[in-house]
């Protein structure tokens, strides 16, 4: 590990996460915004559903690790929401199971106060639900919409029939949002946020499912909004976090007066969007 040690933000999910550093992706945006403030760690797995996520949860987030992430942003749902295949194979996960899988992921990462109400602590001691860290925060991303016409255009001969519909995405998105409301978790409703754009069908996707640069801008904006508004201590909004080695230095660029230097550690003029 290189130092100094920074807060660690882990992105965990399927292809929406794996590709988040591609094509102007939202992970790359966060890495830029949080440069010198936090390390963005990518744990994305193309094609995965919530069942496969549970299989590796202890490996991706070991509870005996020397240090734990400050923030985990989680996305599964797009593959779970695909229609079932007649063979029983494929990524489809029934909606009730999907919701419970996402609950288990949240419980592994962080035990919440609501457990004292939802469970009988005598028959289900809270030690069974030991979390990674009392200070690890979670944001869920719900299932975004799809451009069904573009999905059909991009169907490959190598795959059996793929059933992806906006209505299925809506139901899985709603289940994720409902779960987060039950558990007191922060959530970004991507199904709704994407469709606020009049041109979302053509602007937000590369293939009808995966995000274009414009689609990623929506995701990044919504995540930053949550981080700004969350009443967390410490605050993880980028403007509230210290900048690593942000002190003035005689080695900085010399100002026009020829006597002082200009500290560039907070410069953001290079960004296409001045994120709030």
Task: Give your account of this protein's structure.
This is SGNH hydrolase-type esterase domain-containing protein. Keywords: Hydrolase. It comes from Rhododendron griersonianum. GO terms for molecular function: hydrolase activity, acting on ester bonds. It is a single chain. The chain is 33% helix and 11% strand. It is α/β, with parallel strands linked by helices. The strands form two sheets. A five-stranded parallel sheet has the order 2-1-3-4-5, sandwiched between helices. A two-stranded antiparallel sheet has the order 6-7.
Give a concise summary.
Helices cover 33% and strands 11% of the residues.
Write the topology of this structure.
Elements: E1 8-13, H1 15-18, H2 26-33, E2 39-44, H3 50-60, E3 71-75, H4 95-109, H5 115-118, E4 137-141, H6 148-153, H7 166-183, E5 186-188, H8 190-194, H9 200-203, H10 213-229, E6 253-254, E7 261-262
Parallel strand pairs: 1-2, 1-3, 3-4, 4-5
Antiparallel strand pairs: 6-7
Helix pairs in contact: 2-10, 3-4, 4-7
* Sheet having the most strands: 5 strands, parallel
Oligomer: single chain
Task: Count helical runs.
Answer: 10
Shape: globular
Name the helicity range: 25-40%
* Integer-rounded radius of gyration: 21 Å
Overall mean pLDDT? 89
Strand percentage: 5-15%
Return residue spans where pLDDT drops below 50 for at least 5 consecutive residues.
Answer: 112-132
Provide the succession of SSEs: EHHEHEHHEHHEHHHEE
Q: What is the count of β-strands? A: 7
| Ends apart, CA distance between termini | 30 Å
GO molecular function: hydrolase activity, acting on ester bonds
Pfam families: Lipase_GDSL
Protein name: SGNH hydrolase-type esterase domain-containing protein
InterPro entries: GDSL, Iah1-like, SGNH_hydro_sf
